């Protein structure tokens, strides 16, 4: 399936459907392997020019009132929702996501713009009682400056609006590099932003087949005052080090290894579908998806049986087909990694209850819902993000053991726990080392709450009031001579 007229109308001249004369790379449909379009392959020179343009455009935008900026952001939100069907299909074609989920991502992405349009009006300063007469002490909030950002492919719309929404609401300009697997979604967002009234030059999308060169400029150029990255911990550490040369304000949303701890008093009518939703959403390609599922031994067999039944209902197929529950993985590298993790776990004693290998009849990237039981601690998938539709289950005996297993990782992004005991729920949610805990809840991401991790899962928060603060600087003013 190719890009529809509605999608092409949004993208305009930002893409080419045939190999262009300029340096370019292709965006592929992972469901079929076909080329969807070609986009510019940019590097350091184009990134530096984008920073120059953004720096020039920012003063006029920052001088607008928060209400004036909000009106434009609200129009951007409305355009996203008016084009929800086209944008959802674009996500499905470019990223492989099931179309029902893709439509949901459009609404999720638009939600960040709507939230920060309003929250930008509440970037409050404060007055401070002076310790001596004749002075007035106060603080004001000001935009941090030009923002550099790098976003991943698994949420190609919302990971961008989660950064650009607060950046623009705060009065900043931005230069953003989207993932090379999903450049079209980023370009569509920019096109609609400009139609909504966001000034040309305020947002720059730097598309590139390889991110290292662009990332180096964004992290080392002193004109970039804030850098925001969502991606792997390994890459995040490199970018973090590069930012040190100019002491930028930085936020990093990095890898996860989310535990699910299911106690024997859990309500399985809640715990099983919630775990399935967390695990198999976006074919398991989310940073907060269930990665290690610990089930107390008393209900282990019953939980496995019911989770398997849930997984069997997920139809594997092209993302754009209405009945699809699981689309393809993003690329061959991803499919190879998931296959190797499963094979390695099985070689060490894990048992395959469902799935377990690529469905070659559908294509090389189609990995079905997979259930593995009795996965040993020594398996790589205990320590690494699977990033695929593989549910790895581990039995445990005591509450203390469940918490210890959950915390046995250098990562701490999301975690989940299921219990009907209120006291236990409170104890466990406090004891688990994660930036976010879903208690009897499998999907907790929302624009109104802070998103982020601890340990090697990152720095800073996105969403909510904390997300706006990431793009503001607090200035203290001591106003003397008033006595």
From TrEMBL:
Single GO term (MF): succinate-semialdehyde dehydrogenase (NAD+) activity
GO biological process terms, alphabetically, are: gamma-aminobutyric acid catabolic process
Among the Pfam families in the record, one is: Aldedh
Q: What is this protein called?
A: Aldehyde Dehydrogenase
Which keywords does this Swiss-Prot/TrEMBL entry list?
A: Oxidoreductase
- What InterPro entries has UniProt attached to this entry? Ald_DH/histidinol_DH, Ald_DH_C, Ald_DH_CS_CYS, Ald_DH_CS_GLU, Ald_DH_N, Aldehyde_DH_dom, Aldehyde_DH_Superfamily
Query: Could you tell me which PANTHER family the record lists for this protein?
Result: SUCCINATE-SEMIALDEHYDE DEHYDROGENASE, MITOCHONDRIAL (PTHR43353)
